[in-house]
């Protein structure tokens, strides 16, 4: 079984959408195996988005993700990475497919409610940032 990492972003947490989002994942045969609600640090967010450093949207992303609480989920299921990315939809909610999480809950390209890892390598990298034991 494959694992993937999901972040329920500040806009969704603020609007009390955590349960609805998790319910959609669970109804699609994905199992929550780890969950953590937290206020991300600047260092965590900078490391998470390090590949985007220097791009025009980098500062906006960092500022947004540090603006409130997030929920980090580690999900497990057959083909979890691809299935979660399909459930989430395109990054821009206006372009996302109907019934995807971003179409239903996203506000704009930045405040799009959810993030998901796009590869096994990213799952490992992002898990080390967000789910590291203290």
From TrEMBL:
- What biological processes does GO assign it? CTP biosynthetic process; GTP biosynthetic process; UTP biosynthetic process
Task: Return the InterPro entries for the record.
Answer: NDK-like_dom (IPR034907), NDK-like_dom_sf (IPR036850), Nucleoside_diP_kinase (IPR001564), Nucleoside_diP_kinase_AS (IPR023005)
Q: Domain Nucleoside diphosphate kinase-like spans what residues?
A: 1-134
Question: SMART domains per the record?
Answer: NDK
Q: Which domain of life is it from?
A: Bacteria
* Catalytic residue list: 115
Kinase listed as a keyword: yes
Print the keywords alphabetically.
Answer: ATP-binding, Kinase, Magnesium, Metal-binding, Nucleotide metabolism, Nucleotide-binding, Transferase
Which top EC class is named for this enzyme in its record? transferase
Provide the binding site for ATP.
9, 57, 85, 91, 102, 112
Catalytic activity, per the record?
a 2'-deoxyribonucleoside 5'-diphosphate + ATP = a 2'-deoxyribonucleoside 5'-triphosphate + ADP
Q: Name one GO molecular function term.
A: ATP binding
Query: Which EC numbers characterise this protein's activity in its record?
Result: 2.7.4.6
**Required cofactor names:** Mg(2+)
- Family, as annotated: Belongs to the NDK family.
**Can you name this protein?**
Nucleoside diphosphate kinase
Naturally occurring in which organism (per UniProt): Alkalibacterium pelagium
Question: What lineage does UniProt assign to this protein's organism?
Answer: Bacteria, Bacillati, Bacillota, Bacilli, Lactobacillales
């Amino acid at each position: 079984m494959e694992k993937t990492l999901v972040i329920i972003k500040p806009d969704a947490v603020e609007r009390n959408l955590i349960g609805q989002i998790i319910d959609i994942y669970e109804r699609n045969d994905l199992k929550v195996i780890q969950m953590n609600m937290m206020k991300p640090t600047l260092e965590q967010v900078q490391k998470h988005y390090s590949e985007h450093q220097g791009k025009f949207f980098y500062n906006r992303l960092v500022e947004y993700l540090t603006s409130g609480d997030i929920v980090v989920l580690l999900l497990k299921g057959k083909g979890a990475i691809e299935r979660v990315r399909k459930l989430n939809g395109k990054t821009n909610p206006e372009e996302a497919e109907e019934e995807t999480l971003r179409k239903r809950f996203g506000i704009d390209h930045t405040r799009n409610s959810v993030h998901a890892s796009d590869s096994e390598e990213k799952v490992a990298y992002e898990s080390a940032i967000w789910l590291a034991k203290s």
